[in-house]
Amino acid sequence: xxxxxxxxxxxxxxxxxxxxxxxxxxxxxxxxxxxxxxxxxxxxxxxxxxxxxxxxxxxxxxxxxxxxxxxxxxxxxxxxxxxxxxxxxxxxxxxxxxxxxxxxxxxxxxxxxxxxxxxxxxxxxxxxxxxxxxxxxxxxxxxxxxxxxxxxxxxxxxxxxxxxxxxxxxxxxxxxxxxxxxxxxxxxxxxxxxxxxxxxxxxxxxxxxxxxxxxxxxxxxxxxxxxxxxxxxxxxxxxxxxxxxxxxxxxxxxxxxxxxxxxxxxxxxxxxxxxxxxxxxxxxxxxxxxxxxxxxxxxxxxxxxxxxxxxxxxxxxxxxxxxxxxxxxxxxxxxxxxxxxxxxxxxxxxxxxxxxxxxxxxxxxxxxxxxxxxxxxxxxxxxxxxxxxxxxxxxxxxxxxxxxxxxxxxxxxxxxxxxxxxxxxxxxxxxxxxxxxxxxxxxxxxxxxxxxxxxxxxxxxxxxxxxxxxxxxxxxxxxxxxxxxxxxxxxxxxxxxxxxxxxxxxxxxxxxxxxxxxxxxxxxxxxxxxxxxxxxxxxxxxxxxxxxxxxxxxxxxxxxxxxxxxxxxxxxxxxxxxxxxxxxxxxxxxxxxxxxxxxxxxxxxxxxxxxxxxxxxxxxxxxxxxxxxxxxxxxxxxxxxxxxxxxxxxxxxxxxxxxxxxxxxxxxxxxxxxxxxxxxxxxxxxxxxxxxxxxxxxxxxxxxxxxxxxxxxxxxxxxxxxxxxxxxxxxxxxxxxxxxxxxxxxxxxxxxxxxxxxxxxxxxxxxxxxxxxxxxxxxxxxxxxxxxxxxxxxxxxxxxxxxxxxxxxxxxxxxxxxxxxxxxxxxxxxxxxxxxxxxxxxxxxxxxxxxxxxxxxxxxxxxxxxxxxxxxxxxxxxxxxxxxxxxxxxxxxxxxxxxxxxxxxxxxxxxxxxxxxxxxxxxxxxxxxxxxxxxxxxxxxxxxxxxxxxxxxxxxxxxxxxxxxxxxxxxxxxxxxxxxxxxxxxxxxxxxxxxxxxxxxxxxxxxxxxxxxxxxxxxxxxxxxxxxxxxxxxxxxxxxxxxxxxxxxxxxxxxxxxxxxxxxxxxxxxxxxxxxxxxxxxxxxxxxxxxxxxxxxxxxx
Amino acid sequence: xxxxxxxxxxxxxxxxxxxxxxxxxxxxxxxxxxxxxxxxxxxxxxxxxxxxxxxxxxxxxxxxxxxxxxxxxxxxxxxxxxxxxxxxxxxxxxxxxxxxxxxxxxxxxxxxxxxxxxxxxxxxxxxxxxxxxxxxxxxxxxxxxxxxxxxxxxxxxxxxxxxxxxxxxxxxxxxxxxxxxxxxxxxxxxxxxxxxxxxxxxxxxxxxxxxxxxxxxxxxxxxxxxxxxxxxxxxxxxxxxxxxxxxxxxxxxxxxxxxxxxxxxxxxxxxxxxxxxxxxxxxxxxxxxxxxxxxxxxxxxxxxxxxxxxxxxxxxxxxxxxxxxxxxxxxxxxxxxxxxxxxxxxxxxxxxxxxxxxxxxxxxxxxxxxxxxxxxxxxxxxxxxxxxxxxxxxxxxxxxxxxxxxxxxxxxxxxxxxxxxxxxxxxxxxxxxxxxxxxxxxxxxxxxxxxxxxxxxxxxxxxxxxxxxxxxxxxxxxxxxxxxxxxxxxxxxxxxxxxxxxxxxxxxxxxxxxxxxxxxxxxxxxxxxxxxxxxxxxxxxxxxxx
Lengths: 1101, 546
Description:
The complex is a heterodimer of chains A (1101) and B (546). Chain A is built from 14 helices and 54 strands. With 1101 residues, chain A is mostly beta strands. Chain A has a 22-stranded antiparallel β-barrel. By secondary structure, chain B is mainly alpha-helical. Chain B has helices spanning 3-24, 42-52, 64-67, 82-85, 93-97, 101-114, 123-148, 160-165, 171-189, 202-215, 219-232, 249-252, 280-284, 301-306, 318-321, 324-333, 346-351, 416-430, 434-447, 459-473, 480-486, 490-493, 531-536, and strands spanning 33-34, 75-77, 265-269, 297-299, 352-353, 358-361, 364-368, 390-391, 411-415, 496-504, 510-518. In chain B, strand 10 and strand 11 (510-518) form a beta hairpin. The N and C termini of chain B lie far apart (80 Å). Chain B is built from 23 helices and eleven strands. A two-stranded antiparallel sheet of chain B has the order 2-4. In chain B, strands 3-9 form a two-stranded antiparallel sheet. In chain B, strands 5-8 form a two-stranded antiparallel sheet. At the A-B interface, strand 31, strand 33, strand 34, strand 38 and strand 39 of A face helix 1, strand 1, helix 2, helix 6 and helix 8 of B.
């Protein structure tokens, strides 16, 4: 028996033959349908069908597309796989069907807009049709859980019922009735009753490709009707993965979105969408959660229903201000009526450093340090005897061999627990959740705990009036060593001849290293940081009459941050002199910061459908304001390190501080969406924004956008391709967005600041010009043209999407580079124009062979940044920016190898009085007698190119595996820091193993120049292409294995779903980077990314 | 409603909303004062004038006064060797730090703001306050002029367009401006005078005019302005400890206790006694001291050698003269001792920490600077950049700060000994009244407990004596670099190898530590125009040779 369930837009979905569903159901009906809303079909619809040697099924599909009829086929009686050829032009449907079904013992009839094809022998007399029969059944979701409150209606009648708490229904229906089974969030299904008495209906979740509802600005739209470049990431991609933050989840999933992770627990990753637009900032997208800004990165990932990334200006324009860098919308899960269900998700993971650089041992270090001294004519620091002792390790306290990075970076444990409950009645639905994340990186002393609770409640008060009330609270607790970043830098700068621990286990004292970072890490300063973040969204909607609805929204977001850092006096004992050395003092700094944010929205929406025309209009007003302030206090002179409140400190050494800031934005919003028959889609939006950052008279600006799409596959002339082409849509959009934030909160104000200095041997107050405002400042504007196409092929197995865009930003808010002689820094102006052009491709293939299903999703994007106009002020040489080139290009010398001899230095243009053979030789670009600023050229483009992500997944029975690769194709990067400069920090820094390949008389084509400590070798470290590499990389970001226990196995456990998974992240990386440094975090000296192995559990009950 | 009525209502509604919005959208900064509320009272003027003092040595290195000796033959500035050894370029951060148009703009802004205050200030108040600002502006300009030669001369607040038109003006033009400003300020400063220390008064301006005229070789003017200070009777050499066997007045002049309490300092950069605001102690001290110092100033052997023996002659002559120093030196040096630093001009130990130096607090030794003991934290293998010499001048030896770093010592800009030496130099250069010159020099030597053995000989000999005395007396007060530049002797003193102390080698003999090779080229008499400044302003030409 063939089972083809009702599927909107999906033509055929083959379900395994022996499902429970199939066994119970006697008469299986296949249904083809166009849309939920019945089309007003003419009885005499004429169609054209010219096909050769196709199956009956395919032919009927084509008829369905042209006619708009849906079909019920009794596959028991009809051979739908029979091959037919048809050549009929402009004929009635009945005639065409007659040809197709010719020779089969079947009849077809039109009923309630459906064409029913069944055995010709079946009785069809009126009396029989009217005869009632009693039926029963059960409605399940795809995981086998009963659905409570699903409606079962006889189509075209008022006969109906709802499923009870077990998902069961009982009713009397006319024979040959069609049952419509529906439930919110699921695809409706239609069933022909025929002579069956008991039904098991399995509803599929409403998440299939084109009917997927995509959340866009101030509303939602069916994915198939999108006219914009929007990428959606659904919860199923986020769930079942051991991720702690949204940015981790989005990395590589969204073409055009570049994410750079931070390994430091509690530090958010940075994001950039479709290239850098502005000349003045990196430009993070606007991040909204349920329509309002708020904590994004530390939301409970399990609460997320979907994430929409609005990339083109037309979709973002409705957000006007702050949308110039794109918009990311997060929608959280909401309650579903029915029996309460619980879902638990948890994992435990072990972090290990990804790839730490290998340092040379102390004997080798001493030898090289001596060589670096000899290179500048100075005497050896270490004697042969010293070096011998370093090598033998015989006096470990005096001649240590310390691997600082090993001591610094260690394994640690990360855990996550999250539980959610959902349920409710017809009128009140709830979604409640709590989460507890314990985040660590590769320094166990740095901990970040995130505690999350959420309550999303929807109440239908009357038929017309509904409210929803969402409250969420996030508590983030960081517990770490104060100045952690500084300690990491210090650990990278330590050399192996310094001591971390004496052999008796006490902390080593290294006079000249200033500090012992390991002692600092464990003993010195401790910082506790708590951030309370509470947000409430109250939303009410009232429907005046059918289609006209008012929605009001009020959001308050209050954050309170407590910061307390206690510094302890450390005492070291020098083991050789017995001296006690103290560092630091007992002191306490406290800071309290509070910030409140208010967002009020009033929206009026009107939706109307007249025949094939649907119209969706929105008008609204929104205002936002925020104020934050802080207060700090400090005392020192604590007699012990046991008291951690201010009162415990000395009353004569204290200080305090405090400040406050505020801003406001008001906006008028309007949008109009029109679609004709789902084929021609058009949308117009406008937003007018006023920002407090600008002076009165320059505050307001309007940001319009238009977009349109044409669903070509809906046209008749495409029917010839309908056998393999499921959907084809082309889209185009143009829109404008704005930015106001590039220059801080008060760029239009000229202000006087208060300071102090010392005169007459006492502090005196002073006043000075703090900032020179520009009252003419206005909005920075970005317009974007986007052309795209979406296609679904081969039974929706192959999907593709492409986009090309040109994004143009002008009137950029920037501190203009002016001569230093101007004296007031860089004046605030609107200037210039920058273009970003790029393309994005998404491809996916999903298929199923018997019980084996697999899929490939790939995306690739590229963006090219170009400065179009600097209003005659360019090129800007610091942060090199020139018209026609990417902004902030690398600018410096072109290296042409090494000086190989004194004669070569003598005969070359003058570089530096300290040059010796083995130094980098720069190219003389202007053929004068020296290398100076005029010999600099543009060396490269800092922007990443060819961002890609590739996901491979497969499943067989309960097992599944997925692999996610992610990377960057090309990016110019200038290496710097201790990773490439040996003996950094004026000779005190370490030497890494890869730095052994340095220039000597016998190694003239070395990787690095002659050995000098970083101070002495500064002329070799000038910005030059010698240090330029391609920072592209390919990384296996995540590998995951999972097992879902089958329903029969867990039937008696009380669980409806049980899944175990193992995951490994950052498993391997292919790159051209300096060994030991991560191409993703880029810089040396930072908190390294972790490789995490996790084991997780996901249950539902 | 007709369409028209709807329109009117809509427009009305919008305008109401928009006006309401405008208030909603007005959010002035909460921690700053709008400039429209400024220049309205005397108090505001006073606050603005106070801020102008920040422009005096506004460098990020707050101890630039002492550090500048690292550009000269006196010392090396640790981690900033380039200007000292000749390898600096237009990219050098220290060069850029002296391009002080930020300060100039700030001063011009205050001067223009003063125009709005005439209605409520008396003429004398106005004159005095503008004189303070104009002096500071001239002070900042003269340093720039000295380093860079031709420089843009900006005397008002510029628009963006005007700033693009700026270019370098001839040195003489800028110098004339500076001198005119200083001379006018000298007249105005006398009106409504203030007695507060650290502030500009007529003595400060006279002293600074003497310095500028000396550098510009206008010796008559030097004599005139030094005379004005001498005749004021307000200053003299600080000799508070002349009768104290343990302490000497020269050394105590550079300890915090002398702040606000001596008659020698004419102008100083203040660091608020008793509040502790600078890292001076930490910057200069030895690693092993309570300040866990960073050794940022490394005096070199050549500087140490300049200090005479206690008898008052060059240590190179002692052997030939049969001076007791030569004998005692070899006695002390037996068994690895540091005899060469004993029996010297007392100013050596008041200024420079030499190997074996003992930190004494109330006569008790709390720490010994020991470079050759492997257990010492100052051991050479632990700090190979060390020259063996550090500074004790400016350091607070009695400090016991909790964090061991902060201090509060004011740093001298002009003091009476400098006035005396300037006058002596002018006399010698004019080759007249040489007795007065000799008396001035001997008086300074006497205060330092050195013999008054300089005698009237000839101009060349006295010039050498004067230059020696200036180098010793004013060591690490930021003047040596200016002296060797204006005397045009850099080819001799800033060229070739530089050494640190003589350390014991494996052979059992002391050998001076090689520090670095210095290169001098005459184009270095002027610095390069900073590359960053040239990158932002195409009109700025580069100095010859750079």
